[in-house]
Amino acid sequence: VKLWIKECLLGTIREDLGPAERGVWYDFLILAGNSRVPGVICANASAPLSVKRIAEILNTPAELIERCIEKFEQSGRVEIDENGCIYITNWAKYQYTDYDRQKRYRQAKLRETTD
After folding, report:
1. Are 75 and 28 in contact (CB under 8 A)?
2. CB atoms within 10 A of CB 24
3. According to the model, what pLDDT value does residue 23 have?
């Protein structure tokens, strides 16, 4: 899971979420990265994890998890399907790799050698 330093320090996550909520947000990214369905907090493709189970995994009060899920959904950070599975919006953004970062430099170098 990729965390963007400037966005974490200066972006809307810091503006919109308190310290505990930010902790839950980063934990949600980690859970979604460790999921059987990447980018989705769920037990499997069609079965959600309950708030109670998420709270147990994260060692966090269930009330905070509930509040965060509501806030994350309202702000468009997550979407919840009809089964209750939690999808991280823009999941691909959190998967940006060093390979992706260096791609434009490799392409530029390749163009130089073919010119």
Report:
1. no
2. 25
3. 97
Q: In sequence order, which residues have a C-beta less than 8 Å from that of residue 40 and are 6 or more positions away?
A: 32, 85, 86, 87, 88
Cα–Cα distances (Å) from 2 to 15, 19, 35, 47, 51, in that order, read 20, 19, 16, 26, 25
Task: With beta carbons less than 8 A apart as the criterion, state whether 31 and 54 touch.
Answer: yes
Q: pLDDT digit string (tens) for 83-108?
A: 999 999 989 887 765 555 566 666 67
Name residues whose C-beta falls within 8 Å of residue 43's C-beta, 6 or more positions apart in sequence: 36, 49, 53
**What is the rounded distance in angstroms from the CA atom of residue 92 to the CA atom of residue 63?**
29
Three-state SS annotation for 20-59: HHHHHHHHHHHHHHCCCCCCEECCECCECCCHHHHHHHHC
3-state secondary structure of 89: coil
Alpha-carbon distance of 91 to 95, in angstroms, equals: 7
Q: Which two tokens stand for residue 109?
A: 């170098």
pLDDT for res 55: 98
